[in-house]
Each structure stands twice: as structure tokens, then as C-alpha cells.
Amino acid sequence: MRVDELDVDEANGVEGASGYLTVDLAALGRNYARLAKMVAPALAAAVVKADAYGIGAERVAKTVYEQGCRHFFVAQFVEAMKLRPAVPQDARIFVLNGLQPGNEDICAYEDIIPVINSIEQWRNWSRTARRLGRRLPAAVQFDTGMSRLGLPPEERPLLAEDLTYRSDVEILFLMSHLASADDDESTQNWEQLEELRRIAEEFPGHDLSFANSGGVFLGNPYHSALARPGIALYGGAPSNATRPMEPVVRLDVAVVQTRTVPAGTKVGYGGIHVTAKQTRLATIAAGYADGLPRSLSDRGAVYFDGVRLPIVGRVSMDSITIDVSALPEGAIGIGSLVEVLGPNRTLEDVAREAGTICYEILANLGRRYHRQYR
Ligand SMILES: *Cc1c(COP(=O)(O)O)cnc(C)c1O
């Protein structure tokens, strides 16, 4: 096949791609089904912001739609616009970052549901509904202790007052977001739940939406009417305490050069790694431009045939050097694929070694890999 015969998404899928990102959509579907079962009779949404944490929002949305998912959360209006034509009309798309001034009409016309984050946004959306002469849906988010998004406590009386008049805004959910759901010992979880319960009393008669992935695993009191898992769908462990989800992503990267060096040889930028003995090295074709953080320099590892191969020296922009001495001579050569993420290397392993969280690793996985969806 010639390159110009490929569609743009597949353009990096020509023979000889230097990395292969494999997304197991069946596993994703099973993760959704499992979460949905855990929260039933509450519903489970899918959080597909940032291109579904880098995995591909459209594919993810279609997969979970088939499992019965009808509620989708993106962060930005532009993401909602992109997703809208990809899912059937009965899929509800919510924009977490709120209703930006000037976007009211297009949200109404395009059937995009804002998460109302302030009294000003509420009033703009109400005015739009009056002007268009129809009811417009919204979720209303409250800040219950994270100080990030949502109506602050002092705006609640203003909303209550507005609601004494007839409103053309249909509140689908009152929502809030957990700050510490990954830590089931944190007292903040309970404090936020108490605050949300007070809000539910102030604004009775509405469904609530609270739990992210961690919240799903915190148990029933957190599930309310609609849970909003993200990372757990994609195989990330929502907390240390929970049984891991099924992995969804696998990443294999090609070897582009091998060599054998004597003891005392410097490896990579800055020469921070010096070989202690004769060492067989391989250079693989992915680096920090492909989402493998520079903080993995001289730590962490990849796998080949189940054998651990440590990263040596600094992570470069486009490559990483690994010590392959543990493999039989000749076992690995140009074009061999090593496992960067897979059965031997979980997202959590890589995140821990990189000094970050699995969300960041996943969301940054690069655009240069050939992506294949199973
Ligand atoms: C990102 C996000 C989620 C999903 O969080 P996970 O920890 O990935 O499950 C849910 N709700 C809001 C408001 C978010 O910003």
C-alpha cells in the first residue's frame, strides 16, 4: 500500500513503524461493564476528556455506547464538538470545564450539555433558554472542597433565589468532584460527601453525580445517580487498595540499533551512566517526545520475552537505550519489539518509576506510534 492511499489517521501505520500502541477495545468494554455493574442501579458515564486519556475518544465512546453508556464527559467545548457527530443523538455529552461566554447558542444548537460552574454561567444559560424559547439541559457543579470548578458556597443562595422563578434550564444532575478518592483512608472523601448531601437538601428533587473511578471503589454512598469513571475504564488502578482493572493499552517499541561496549563506557546524554562491565546495549525508537518521561532516565525497564531490560542513561527525545545483557546473545536485533507497557509492565509500574501517576503516562502517549484497535 502506498502512503497516499492511507487515510490520515493511518499514515503512521506503514510498515516499519517504530512503535505500536495496541488498544484492546474488548477489555475496555468489559471494564465499563464491570464498573456499571458495581454502581447499578446508578448509571455509569464515561469520561473521555483529552481524547479519552490519549486512547481515542471516538473509538472509546462507540465501544462503551454499545455497552449501554449514554453519558459522556469531556473537558472542553471543542472536544464535545468533535465527539458529537461520532455518537448517536441519545448520547449526552457534558463539558466539564463549563459554559464559556459566547458558546451558549452553539451548545444549544449542537446538543452539547454544559456543566454549569458559576452563577454567571447559570444566568447565561437561563437567558439563552428564554431567548430560544425552549428548555435547555445542564448539570450544575458545586465546589465541595476542591476549590477548582463549580459554584462556590457563597453562590448557592443566589442559585436558590433564581430557582424560585420558573427556569427554562432543566437540571439533569447536581454534581461535584472528589479530590482524594484515590485514597480510601482520606477523611476528605467523607467531608465532601456530607457537603454534597447538604447541597442536595438545599436543591431537592435532582439526581446527583459524584464518583470518579476512585469514588466507584469507595462504595455505595458515593455512587448516587451517575458515576463518572475515567482512568478505570482505561485500565488504570483507581487506588492502591482495589483489584486492578483489565489493561487496555499495550505499547511495543522497535529496536533501531544494538552494540556491545566494554566496561567503563558512558551511555547517553551527560554520560550519567557508565557501564560496570562489558555490556550489550540496544537503542529503542521512542523517547520523551513519545510520552516516555525523561524522569525514567537510568531507572525503569522494558521487557523482552519476559526478561527485564533496564533503561540505562538519559531518556532522549526520540530514543532510549536499554541494557540487553540478560538476553541470550543475538536474541534481539534491529526491528525487534520490546514491551514498554504490557503484561510485564503496568501503567502503574511506569508511573511509579517516572515519579508520576498513571493518568499522566496514559494521556501523554505519543502520536508517532502506529495505533491499532482490537
Ligand atoms: C477527570 C474527571 C473524572 C474522571 O476521573 P478518574 O479519576 O479518571 O475516574 C470525573 N469527574 C471529573 C469532574 C473529572 O474532571
TrEMBL record:
The keyword Glycoprotein does not apply. Keywords: Isomerase, Pyridoxal phosphate. PROSITE patterns: ALANINE_RACEMASE (PS00395). Pathway: Amino-acid biosynthesis; D-alanine biosynthesis; D-alanine from L-alanine: step 1/1. Its cofactor is pyridoxal 5'-phosphate. Residues 248-374 form the Alanine racemase C-terminal domain. It catalyses: L-alanine = D-alanine. It comes from the Bacteria. One of its GO terms (molecular function) is alanine racemase activity. The active site is at K49, Y269. The keyword Transferase does not apply. The modification N6-(pyridoxal phosphate)lysine is found at K49. Its EC number is 5.1.1.1. Pfam families: Ala_racemase_C, Ala_racemase_N. Substrate binds at R148, M317. HAMAP family: Ala_racemase. Belongs to the alanine racemase family. Catalyzes the interconversion of L-alanine and D-alanine. May also act on other amino acids. PANTHER family: ALANINE RACEMASE, ALANINE RACEMASE, CATABOLIC-RELATED. This is Alanine racemase. The lineage of its organism: Bacteria, Pseudomonadati, Pseudomonadota, Alphaproteobacteria, Hyphomicrobiales. The gene is alr.
